[in-house]
Amino acid sequence: MGFFHCSEYVMTALYNRDVLSFDSFLINHSRSYHVAALSCCIEYYLEMRYCPIIKSLNIISYAGLAMVGLGEAFRKLAMWTAGSNFKHIVATNKLESHELVTTGIYSLCRHPAYAGWFWWAVGTQVLLCNPFCSIAYGWAAYRFFADRLEYEEYHLLLFFGTQYHRYQQRVPTGVPFVQGYVAREQLLSYLTAREQSAATSS
């Protein structure tokens, strides 16, 4: 966890120095995050005390370690690929510097940073052989990203129009069971008309 939070700060310092702050560590992410961290410590302590055999399943711990490592690598590769386009906070206003990144790891999934975080978070609990928190973390991460991707992809469609819609059609989100925002015909018609108007005026 220490490496994760410190590396989040370092990556922000490298590519988004203008928004660098203590918040870039993501330590104070939310109350839910703190509750989750406390819950995993409580489960680990109780199981070590009353059912230590659960904690001796090395093959499960190794699987969790692999999930943590791959998830972390996936996330940091996404941040590196996106560069200054990556932000911890969802943008609701398009800046001139905003670009749609679809190359590299973004050609495999639309949200590799979220996918990486999902597997890292669940992997930390598998690593600790915390069965209850493994399930709870997976469910909480799914619920969080289901809502966040709906919100974020709606704005990405407004930013990049049919270009983003085509990207959605050919590349999955990367987060298990999360589909993302499904654009309705009315929105697609609006985006197409907007682009045609812009092409005509130019």
UniProtKB/TrEMBL annotation:
Gene3D superfamilies (alphabetical): 1.20.120.1630
Superkingdom of the source species: Eukaryota
EC number: 2.1.1.100
Subcellular location: Endoplasmic reticulum membrane; Membrane
Pfam families registered for this protein in UniProt: ICMT (PF04140)
Membrane topology designation: Multi-pass membrane protein
Homology family: Belongs to the class VI-like SAM-binding methyltransferase superfamily. Isoprenylcysteine carboxyl methyltransferase family.
Example of a GO MF term: protein C-terminal S-isoprenylcysteine carboxyl O-methyltransferase activity
Protein name according to UniProt: Protein-S-isoprenylcysteine O-methyltransferase
Predominant cellular place of this UniProt entry's protein: endoplasmic reticulum
Keywords, in A-Z order: Endoplasmic reticulum, Membrane, Methyltransferase, S-adenosyl-L-methionine, Transferase, Transmembrane, Transmembrane helix
Listed GO CC annotations: endoplasmic reticulum; endoplasmic reticulum membrane
Organism: Monosiga brevicollis (Choanoflagellate)
GO biological process assignments: methylation
Keyword Nucleotide-binding: no
